[in-house]
Amino acid sequence: MTDWTPDQLDRIGGADELHVQSRRGDGTLNGPRIVWVVRDGDELYVRSVNGRDSAWFRGVQHRHAGHIRAGGVESDVAFIEPGAADNDTFQDRLDAAYQAKYSYSPPAVARITSPAARAATLKITPA
d(Cα 102, Cα 25) in Å, to the nearest integer? Predict the structure, then answer.
């Protein structure tokens, strides 16, 4: 895996919407879903607003690979669960990032910062 460039971080992290596609077993991509993306330092994160049971999240969990498009950037990606970094302090930082970035929609922010959405947090890295 490689790291995001500063330009990619700015463009993807600054985009309101990220189009995410999971990779099927045969290597083809599922249809795109729109999700919200936030930046934490030099890393990018997405959450499933409907938790771990949403179709796109389940698809990503099968192969941990897919494709994203946001801010004029397209990239094949790996989806990584935060693991050891999945603690309250880390999740609170992401909550704050979602609240700051998407403050124009308090009801949607409440859903993306819910316990179910927090449990469906994924880091995206270039593949």
Answer: 34
